[in-house]
Amino acid sequence: MALEIERKFLVRDAGDTVLPDWKRLAEDPEGTLYRQGYLSRDPDRTVRVRVAGDKARLTVKGRTTGCTRSEFEYPIPLEDARRMLDELVLPPVLEKRRYRVPFAGHVWEVDEFEGENRGLVVAEVELESEEEALLLPDWAGEEVTGDPRYYNATLSENPYARWKTEGDRASETPND
Amino acid sequence: MALEIERKFLVRDAGDTVLPDWKRLAEDPEGTLYRQGYLSRDPDRTVRVRVAGDKARLTVKGRTTGCTRSEFEYPIPLEDARRMLDELVLPPVLEKRRYRVPFAGHVWEVDEFEGENRGLVVAEVELESEEEALLLPDWAGEEVTGDPRYYNATLSENPYARWKTEGDRASETPND
């Protein structure tokens, strides 16, 4: 088991320019395609199946307290993960492109969502402790650590595109 | 992934004698203690954490059709499984003792439940195909293949001891 301590931010100017600042800094300008789905979206015991490039993992996460969450992660055969995504997970499968972006001694993970979450770009950074000081890049906007709306499990069930129509997105657009 | 084809029977005279016939035939007269819990009890995507003796596994199962069910099983560290059983699974943890019982060319798995499922003894046998002929031992009683009440995930949520008080057990006792 690992304890995952991370902070999460909306990304500014996410879709405003062809090559936003964060993407210029990315190790991998094409990013890696992630496809993931959930066998359980229960926040006390989330179970995720993820295909990242040609690697697959099954991940169990406990409830988040502060910015810490217990996490159990196991590599699984790619073929198993594909079958689970096609046949077993709660629909829909969530797709995003992940970029690794080094900044000030940390490697940020920037997720550019696709499908019904297109337009949403979120940056996460893993810390050694909850108290660790963190230098924020210009493109890091509002902090959304612990906000359940931005859990990937929630985005799979209640995608960003639907927030607009429900009127609860107006004041919270990441491009504010 | 594996396709799990199995038939399940209640065991007759389960608690009537000190050493019932099936236990006399068991490879391991003490059986093996199983402790298991569920991260998802959804019958379309059950996720089970199991400690069997000193081995631990994480298992994902799809819906049963006929007596076939898709199953994905992964060994995990014992310590991870114990933490998940203690901290993450939907309570309560289900306990049973499993015996391997060879009979007529198959190895039957006989589960003697403990805790709130005490008194329930169930025998399962894995088949090569749904049509395979099967010689039944005398101690195999009513067939309950596909009966959701006898899914271990259900027994964890609605244990056998409670059936009595709900009055839905009278005609279905395994010792009939």
TrEMBL record, chains A, B:
It comes from Sutterella megalosphaeroides. PANTHER family: SLR0698 PROTEIN. InterPro entries: CYTH-like_dom_sf, CYTH_domain, NeuTTM/CthTTM-like. The active site is at 38 (proton acceptor). This is CYTH domain-containing protein. Residues 2-157 form the CYTH domain. SMART domains: CYTH.
